[in-house]
Each structure stands twice: as C-alpha cells, then as structure tokens.
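Entry 12.
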Amino acid sequence: MVKKMLCLALLLVSQIVLAQTSDYFNAPYGELLPASTEGAALWWASSGWKISRDKPLPKATARAIMIRAARNEAEAVQLVIRPVAPLSGFTVHAGALTGPSGAVIPAKKVDVLKVRYVNVTRPTDKSSVPGLWPDPLPPLKGPINLEANKNQPFWIRVKVPRYSPAGIYTGKIHLAAQNYSADVALRVEVYDFVLPGRMTCTTAFGFSPQNVFRYQKLSEPQHRRQVIDKYWASFSAHHISPYNPAPLDGFKVTWPKITESIKPQQLKPVFDWTAWDRAMERTIDYYHFNSFRLSIPGLGGGSFHSRREPQLLGFSEDTPHYKAAFNAYCRQLQQHLRHKGWLDEAYVYWFDEPAPKDYEFVMNGFRKLKHAAPDINRMLTEQVEPKLIGGPNIWCSVSYNYKHEPAQQRRRHGEKFWWYICCGPKAPYCTLFIDHPGTELRVWLWQTWKRRIDGILVWQTNYWTSSAAYPDRERPQNPYEDPMGWVSGYSTPKGNKKPWGNGDGRFIYPPLVAADAHPAGPVLDGPVDSIRWEMLRDGIEDYEYLVILEKLLKAKKDKLTTEWHQKYAAFLEVPEAITKDMTTFTKDPAPIEARRNQIARAIAKLNKL
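Predicted 3D structure (tokens):
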C-alpha cells in the first residue's frame, strides 16, 4: 500500500513537472505577424506568458499587436523576433499612436524593454525545471546583437494618458539591424474610464536603500535622493508601497536629559516633523503610496527565532518612567498622524511571524500600544489564533494559512486582513518565483479579491545578495548571474548556501552596469523592472477594476433593470477558469484577460448611465 501511494505521488510530481515544462517550452500561444520573413520570424504574445528561447513558432496569425487599457493604465505585450541568422546592431523603436479625432498617445508613452534571461541551475521546487528563465526587463538603450534561431522577446509597454479619448489607436514599431528592416502594427484600445492613481488594495513591500547605495556606489546625499526618487517612480508605476517611503527623512525626536532625579511626567518627547512631513506628502500625494510602516521605540520586537525585550531610554517596562515616556511618544505620534490625515495609511509592524511561545509577549506589546494609541493600526504577520484576539486589528497570514471563516468572524469586529507570500508557499500555490508560470502573481490578486482580503505584503523587493551565501563584502551576489534567493541570518553559517527560491525577495534589479556592485563610479539610474513586478501591477489593476465595478453597481442600482444588474454583478465573481481554489488556477493568461475585458466594458457602459 505504501509503495503504491509512493508511486502515485511520484507520478503526480512528474505530471506537474511535465505540465510546467510544456507550458514553458511548447504551449500553443502567440500569433505570427505579417512582417515575418524567411530570414526572421516575428510574433507576439500576452505579457502573462514566460517565453523560452527555444519555444517553437506559433501557428496562429494576427495582423497587429493588440493592447487594451483604461486611461491612466499601463499594459504590456511581448514582441518576439527569431532570426534565422545572427543580426547585429538590432534596434526597436516605437512611434506615436493616433486615435479618435486625431488624438495621440505620444511615443514617449511606449516603453521598449528587453526581456533578459537568468540561468536557473537549482529549481525552486519539483514543479520547476532548470534552464534559462525570463525575468529582468532592462531598457533597450542602444543596438544589440541577436543570436540565430533563438527567440528574443521585447516588452512593449504602453501607458495611456489620463485624458486620452476612448477608442482605437494605431501606430508602428520599427525594427532594424544590419541588412534588416521591418514594421509591426500596434493597436491600442483605450477603455472609456480612468484608473485612479491610488489603488484600493493596500500594498506593503520591503525595500533596502542600503542595497541600492552599495550596488550603485552612491555616497553623496544628492545622488542618493536622486536615485531613490527613480526607485519610487517604479514602485508608484506598479502600485507598490514600500514599508518606509521616507528613508532619508525620518522625523527627529528629542528627549529630556536623563538624570537620577528626573520624574516620569518630565519624559515628554519633542518631535521635529519638518523633513518627514515633506517627504511623506510627496510619497502619498504624488506617488500615491497607500501604506507606511511605523517604528515604535520601547516595544521590543523580533520574530519566531528571536526577540528583543522592551525598554525605553534605559527604563524597563515595569517602571513608571517607561510607561510615561511610551505613552507620551505614542499619543503625540497618533495626534500628528490624525492632523495630517494619515491614520488610515499608517501601521505598526513590530513582531514577525510569532511562534505560540511568543503570543503572550506579542499581546503584551499590543495592549500597551492599544492603550497609548488606539487609532494606529496594529498589524501582525500571523493567522487568526484565539490567544492573539484583541491584539492586532490587521491580520496578515502567509497565503496558505488564511482561513475564511475565522477571518469573517474578526471582520465583524472591524478588523482587516492582508496576506503574504515569500519563500513559501511553493507549488502548487500561487508564488513569487522566477521559475514558475507568469500568471501566478496576477492570479494571486484575483484570489485576494475572492476572499475579500484588503492588502498584500512581501518581505523584500531588492534582496540582491545574501550575507550567508556571499559572506565576502567585496564580492556580493550578482542577481543576474545567480537568481536564487539564498537564506541570510538565523543560524545559517557564513558561506552556506541554503535556498529560499529563485527570485525570492527580488522583484527589481540593479542597473546592469552595477550588477556586481563594482561600477566605475556612481550609477544614477533607477531599477530594472521584472516580469513578476509587471504581473503584480496587472493583478493590482485587475483588483481595482473589480472595485470600480462594485462601486458603480451600488451607485447606479436604481438605473438598472434587475436582469442587467444581475448580469454585471456576476462579473464580480471570480470564475473557476481563473482560480477555482488556492491550488487550482490558470497558467494561461487568456481567461484573466477575457474577464478583465468584460469588466472594463461593463464599467464603460455604467459610467454612461
């Protein structure tokens, strides 16, 4: 019996691997374009596919590349060339797009990025395969050389201006090389509604400024500010909010001088908010970030593997001095956030993934925080547990630990839910790994909507090196050459390579010239985006489509017949073709795109009522 079960398990694993391999190398997607010749095939495919270098040419044909997007939305597709002989000096240039009544989407709104591959030598899990996997999307800044008989995709991304009239826009993409020239038709349909700058789905993602400064050799304050702004532009374009959007401009706190005779009531901090307020106003109003993490001194903290005991100004938590100082700090902070209108965006995330042995420690911290600043959100990366009820008012479990019934009970008490993915889960769940299907991160947002989860969290975005796997400070990891997210910290010995998964903690890359952290001088470029970064953006925008439709159905209810209301309301349900459950979901982007198109057209019609 045991042997039979083992055989069945091995058969299942082999089927998963074969399915993944088939999707990556042979799935029948894509359409050949008319500009194809005997010397170079041209074809295009959805951005949701990860295109292998050796995938056979598609059999279907199309007259043009097609993109659909709302106003103020970015959407991308992949244009692929496969030359028979090597091409040198190859370039791609996108022209302006002309639409209704002569309206124009300027050429500067069309980005051309090269799809670059990383070599996966150690697959993340048994559903994956080794080989070259596409992920980084560096800008195409000049001529490149193309190999013979290899697919080379280019990421064609169109950002529709906010005030572009709805309708069809047409233009061309010009490809050229030595002894080669071709034009590809590009069509963009603009839906008749505007996507807001600020998204409804809360995002909270880690980011290391120090990694940027280290890799890009930035020591001058003005250079650091200039480059961080470029990183924030990428975060904003993908609707991702970093934990700390003002890393160079923290608020200043001055405490009275501590003496033996100081009284508890004298321990009142003086805040200087000037630089922090200025930076935060920019990140919230201009970049449209919708969350930020607060650090509260005196709480202590830690995670399941270690913790720091609470103390403040040298006073332990059982002293009157600690209590007076802690309460004064928290109350002033809450008052300032209320004055600025930022209470909804702020959250305290001070303990990570507590083990049961830590629950009372965590609850002690939350009780103090709830007493001192009851209006500041208290977030905890843990699922609902009876011994934690009354502590956090934002629960953030790893995705596979989310349980809907306990969550519904806590929602009735006004509590919110986020969830996260990181080094886990792995297949067959939606994950963040490079060597997994492109749809997974986008589907994750549909799963988020289906469960009425309010936000998503990921621990890091630019985890470019591991201090354990690469202990030599002068020779950090090159994320383009080694795509694995290796374990750092905990009890991992220096020089030990223990894998988390390919791409874990890494959605953006350093500029290519700074890939090894040894550029010739300061590198003032922003980050290199990735396919997974783009899929997150698309998923967050899909979530917003659903939010817009739901709001319109409430606002226009009296203007709709029962039949039409039911028809449009049905679009708010996530079809099984996209995701049936946490482990059953589409690897093909077509069902997602079809549902999105239905929702978009429903929004456009409802807007006219």
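Annotation: The domain at 202-463+504-539 is CATH 3.20.20 (TIM Barrel). The chain has eleven helices and 34 strands.
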